[in-house]
Sequence to fold (272 residues):
Amino acid sequence: MTAALAGRTVVVTGASSGIGAATARHCAALGARVILLARDAGRLRAVADRIGPEAEPHAVDLADPDALAAVAARIEADHGTPDVLVNNAGGGRWRFAEETDPAEARAMMDVPVLAAFHLTRCFLPGMLERGRGTIVTVTSMAAFTPFPGATAYVMSRKALLGLHEALAADLSGTGVRPVLAYFARVDSLFWANNPGSAERVPGAQALIPRIDPDRAGRAIARGVARGRRTVTAPGMARVVRALAALAPGITSALVRRTGHRRNNVGRTDARP
Ligand SMILES: NC(=O)c1ccc[n+]([C@@H]2O[C@H](COP(=O)([O-])OP(=O)(O)OC[C@H]3O[C@@H](n4cnc5c(N)ncnc54)[C@H](OP(=O)(O)O)[C@@H]3O)[C@@H](O)[C@H]2O)c1
Fold:
């Protein structure tokens, strides 16, 4: 396992914090050169300083397709096509559709979904030409077990699952490997950055123990190094995903019963 990513270049989005920062740290510990992308230059610099000279920060707003294309071109010019792309950057408050401003819903599609698509598109030709590469899509358990009170968030994390599945179909036999990383609750700054969301975590999610960002990042880095197709932590997340596939009625009933409810405004289960 030591230096399993030696000589590899890994691009991590959302690397100024949480899961992305931890993924970058663990990839660097496995020997990779890591390129860190996020908006906050100061926090990116702090993460890079902690990792050492093998970390290279680039401040960029991935919601801006021109800025994204420019940073991707610079990475290609300086380092060639990266070996690994970790599409992780993203946020979004958990709100019902009627509570969500259209601009906020759009922002949740711009990043993570379209940012992941655009960056993949930038680096894919080089990966295909080389016949090797890894594209990690980081999504939420919400993609498998949609819960109430977080409409646009669930929509965007399902879209990430769709991107991963489409890539898996497209890239079969090319040597470029799509990897799906999914997590339930990770105790990162996500919850402070997206106020009002923590209160809406369905009670049923207590089935899956909470983890810290370091554990999530370690799982991603090790999964990539070991050639895994899916990555998660803790093990119970895998069990719940399997249950959702085998018995979706059970998992959806569980999250609905224990999930957030409106204040019963306009609620009617009765037939007219
Ligand atoms: N925390 C959880 O429980 C959990 C569980 C499953 C999945 N996830 C998913 O994992 C991803 C990372 O979450 P996290 O927990 O690590 O949250 P976090 O600590 O809030 O980190 C989010 C990262 O995304 C970056 N980012 C957001 N918008 C960006 C933009 N427009 N351009 C560039 N970078 C942007 C942020 O950096 P800047 O602010 O510096 O731009 C930050 O580095 C999210 O997509 C989240 O949905 C989280």
